[in-house]
Design brief:
mainly alpha, 10 helices, 74% helix, 0% strand
Length: 313
């Protein structure tokens, strides 16, 4: 059964909208509340103290672990548990159905690993441009709000990636690299993208629209374009392979490589500054762009051939 012949009790746009609402409600409200109560044993002080620290956690190093727990709960509950329960109640489709019978090829994992890391160098062009974007005068109010939101998110990210121990790094790796790769790809590529494909009958519209919504969901508009491009990359990996594990792995590599380099930079092992918004040296950008393009071509060609072999049987 293909994405276009898939039958549902709901129209594709209705299923899209309801899934997005469930995920948003879970991520913004339900997940953090559950995480708050789960993190109480790790608080220092009473609950009122912790509620006060939540408004500006960056001044309290001891609050990092509770914040990890709340963030992890938001991702797990909001982007995995609640959407999966919703889909099972409406579509009778369990979470294993996205992965059952999907073969994983080692060569494609290697290609995806190389492609994703290489694309990170290419994306520094758009990171640099987007970070220094200026809005026109008539959008000054939105621009000021977006800049304030971006600065706050950047400050919070730096706070969450200041690792005082190996244990904090491992915990942060789980929260920042593993859980988002699973939850975000399950919702955006596994659930939402196919419904837009069913509605529009155009895979490119479905992939890019989902990528735009994926980027907007993060509410970081001075990083909107590079995150949108990543979302589109993940979307094509899913469409070409038919295996949700591939964009999940690419998402994991992107986030995990960043967190690992931050940790190694803090330890003085590497000089790479993953927090920089500057474009990588142009020779590196050109070389890595060619590598990313070659891996992307190889990835698509590999799965095209596998599809032809299956069709010929």
């Amino acid at each position: 059964m293909t994405e276009l012949t898939y039958e549902s009790k709901l129209s594709p746009l209705s299923l899209f909208a309801l899934t997005f609402l469930v995920a948003g409600f879970g991520f913004i409200l339900v997940g953090p509340i559950i995480g708050f109560f789960l993190s109480i044993p790790f608080f220092e002080g009473n609950i009122n103290d912790q509620l006060a620290k939540m408004t500006d956690p960056t001044g309290y190093p001891e609050f990092r672990l509770p914040l990890y727990i709340m963030q992890g709960s938001a991702t797990l509950i909001g982007l995995a548990v609640l959407p999966s329960l919703f889909w099972f109640s409406v579509e009778r489709k369990g979470i294993t159905s996205w992965f059952a019978g999907k073969k994983v090829y080692g060569l494609m994992l290697i290609a995806t690993l190389v492609m994703t890391i290489a694309f990170m160098a290419t994306n520094t062009i758009f990171i640099d441009w987007n970070a220094h974007l200026s809005f026109p005068e008539f959008m000054k109010g939105f621009g000021d709000w977006a800049r304030e939101t971006e600065d706050h998110a950047e400050e919070l990210t730096k706070y969450m990636t200041q690792f005082s121990s190996l244990g904090e790094f491992v915990f942060a790796f789980l929260i920042i690299a593993i859980l988002p790769a699973f939850g975000e790809e399950l919702v955006f590529r596994g659930m939402l993208q196919p419904q837009l494909f069913r509605a529009t009958k155009n895979i490119h519209v479905a992939i890019w629209t989902t990528a735009i919504i994926f980027s907007a969901f993060h509410l970081q508009f001075f990083g909107f374009v590079p995150r949108m491009l990543l979302g589109a990359l993940f979307g094509y990996l899913y469409y070409w392979s038919g295996n949700l594990l591939m964009p999940m792995f690419a998402h994991f590599v992107n986030n995990g490589f960043s967190v690992l380099m931050l940790y190694l930079n803090q330890k003085g092992v590497v000089d790479i500054d993953m927090e920089s918004t500057e474009t990588a040296p142009w020779p590196a950008v050109i070389i890595f762009t060619l590598i990313a393009a070659a891996m992307l071509y190889y990835f698509k060609k590999f799965y095209d051939q596998k599809r032809k072999q299956l069709d010929g049987q």
